[in-house]
TrEMBL record:
Domain HTH marR-type: residue ranges: 23-156
Region (Disordered): 169-191
Protein name stated in the entry: MarR family winged helix-turn-helix transcriptional regulator
Source species: Sphingomonas canadensis
PROSITE patterns: HTH_MARR_2
Pfam short name (any one): MarR
InterPro entries recorded: HTH_MarR-typ (IPR000835), MarR/SlyA-like (IPR039422), WH-like_DNA-bd_sf (IPR036388), WH_DNA-bd_sf (IPR036390)
Length: 215
């Protein structure tokens, strides 16, 4: 677990526990990492394609569906409907996206990429892969797999926590949805667990150094 307090040296050379800091909490670090990642991606796509990060997300989501409702795109991109509408309008004006009549609901429209939009998507996806590979350079493939597995479980836990908060539940009484990993006599499983533990330690140290430099 990420430590909530750190040891600091006093004037007499002794060490004592520093006051707890939000900077050491998992939620705080995730927020910082997400903001840094978004800023890098925004600069990257703006410079190379003159597209904002939300525009790239909308393009990618639409490409994945072929044709899709505006409501689904806005939800998948995690954008407010009013902002998503402006993003879509900008892409339509640039000839990247087009609106179609929704045959199953006359009150809504379907979105799909134009031929130009498909070419833009191919270029955007190639750039996303390059950025993804760059961010993974410090890690072994097993570490990346472990981290992606961690993120999947974290997303599920965030969804459960959101529901608990909305229903007025008590966070302190919440029980973990995932049981602890049982002990195993298998050398391969033991090695995998050790790898995951080392990866978690490396990730913690790396984030700490990076956020300290950013602060």
């Amino acid at each position: 677990m990420l430590q909530q307090g750190i040891c600091v040296a006093t004037a007499k050379g002794k060490r004592k526990e520093a006051p707890p800091s939000f900077r050491n909490l998992l939620t705080f670090r995730l927020h910082r990492v997400a903001r840094i990642s978004e800023r890098i991606s925004e600069q990257y796509y703006r410079k190379q394609l003159n597209l904002s990060l939300p525009e790239c997300r909308v393009i990618g989501i639409t490409a994945g569906y072929g044709s899709v409702s505006f409501k689904r795109v806005a939800a998948a991109a995690n954008l407010e409907k009013s902002y998503a509408s402006r993003v879509v309008s900008a892409l339509v004006e640039r000839g990247i996206m087009e609106k179609l009549v929704n045959p199953s609901d006359s009150r809504s429209v379907l979105l799909q990429l134009t031929e130009q939009g498909k070419a833009v998507h191919a270029e955007t996806f190639a750039m996303a892969l390059a950025l993804n590979d760059l961010l993974q350079l410090p890690f072994a493939s097993a570490q990346v797999d472990a981290f992606l597995s961690f993120l999947t479980t974290l997303e599920q836990q965030l969804d459960r926590t959101s529901g608990l908060i909305e229903s007025g539940g008590d966070l302190a009484s919440a029980t973990p949805a995932v049981a602890p990993m049982p002990e195993s006599d298998s050398p391969e499983e033991a090695r995998s667990f050790e790898l995951d533990r080392n990866f978690a330690r490396q990730l913690h140290d790396m984030l700490g150094k990076y956020l300290a430099a950013e602060g």
